[in-house]
Write a structure and sequence with these properties.
3-stranded mixed beta sheet; alpha/beta; elongated; 6-stranded parallel beta sheet
């Protein structure tokens, strides 16, 4: 099976490397030539345009920042569809709106090209280790064809429905993550403001009804140490919440918590925290409460 991969950012480069390690013939493309060189040095081939990447390929992966870029890369001039053969499969690993991927799928079907949405969860570490969770939308028979390749980059690969279903599951998941992270920050800040030690709060809450992934994943290695180097950036969380907001508007569905959470990340971005980890939203509460939520380091 011949594979193309477009988009070698923080996630894409690591996923592409795992596809290469899986023994597949791989052609890559990205604006970042250093990332391209790293893959080429490992055995991949380089192409200059998305059309070149897709020529003669069985499966073409895209891992890109947003809906507009995904549409341009697949549907635009020198895009994937210009080079893709009939019967090729395009798998978008990005997080975009369901409406956008469904539009791409409709246009691709006119050329006999199948499209699947397969957003991922697990961050840079999961991409490095090949342990991502992948939520796939598309035809069952198409899913079965690409599953061996997806198994190179993900530990838990889920077929969740038709095209658009994968992106829907992802935006719902990240809506919860974003809102939970704000709630965790607010609760810890309140406890510390009241005179409690953050480690006491964590030890009890993590084993009680207030526990959550946001608390357990972000407390010990981030908040407690004052380490806000990104696992998942505030800018990306903000973007994912926008996907949820846009989708909810399309369906005339109120999104009260999502909108409130997004405003918190907007404030954080305005304060220059956009490239820090989502747990850095805590810094807003620390500033407002004139406190610091950290464990004393030995």
């Amino acid at each position: 099976m011949r594979i193309g991969f477009i988009g070698l950012g923080v996630m894409g480069k690591r996923m592409a490397m795992n596809v290469l390690k899986g023994g597949y013939e791989l052609t890559v493309s990205d604006l970042n030539k250093d990332a391209v060189k790293e893959l080429v040095d490992a055995g991949a081939k380089e192409a200059n345009t998305p059309a070149e990447v897709s020529e003669g390929k069985d499966v073409i992966f895209t891992s890109l920042p947003n809906s507009a870029i995904v549409e341009a890369v697949i549907l635009g001039k020198n895009g994937v569809l210009e080079g893709a053969k009939e019967g090729a499969i395009v798998v978008d690993l990005s997080s975009i709106t369901p409406k956008s991927i469904q539009n791409i799928a409709r246009k691709a079907s006119e050329k006999g090209v199948e499209v699947m949405d397969a957003p991922v969860s697990g961050g840079a570490s999961g991409a490095e280790k090949g342990t991502l969770t992948i939520m796939v939308g598309g035809k069952t028979e198409t899913f079965e064809k690409v599953l061996p390749v997806l198994n190179c980059v993900g530990k838990k690969v889920n077929h969740v429905g038709d095209v658009g279903a994968g992106d829907t599951v992802k935006l719902v998941n990240n809506l919860l993550l974003g809102a939970n992270m704000v709630a965790v920050s607010e609760a810890l800040a309140l406890g510390v403001k009241a005179g409690l030690k953050p480690e006491v709060l964590y030890d009890i809450i993590s084993q009680s009804s207030g526990g959550s992934y946001a608390l357990t994943a972000k407390y010990s290695n981030f908040i407690a140490k004052g380490n806000f180097e990104p696992g998942f950036m505030i800018d990306l969380q903000y973007k994912d919440l926008q996907l949820a907001v846009d989708t909810a508007k399309d369906m005339k569905m109120p999104l009260v918590m999502g909108n409130l959470a997004q405003q918190m990340y907007e404030i954080a971005r305005a304060k220059g925290l956009g490239t820090e980890d989502i747990s850095a939203v805590l810094k807003l509460y620390e500033e407002w409460g004139n406190i610091e939520v950290r464990e004393e380091q030995a």
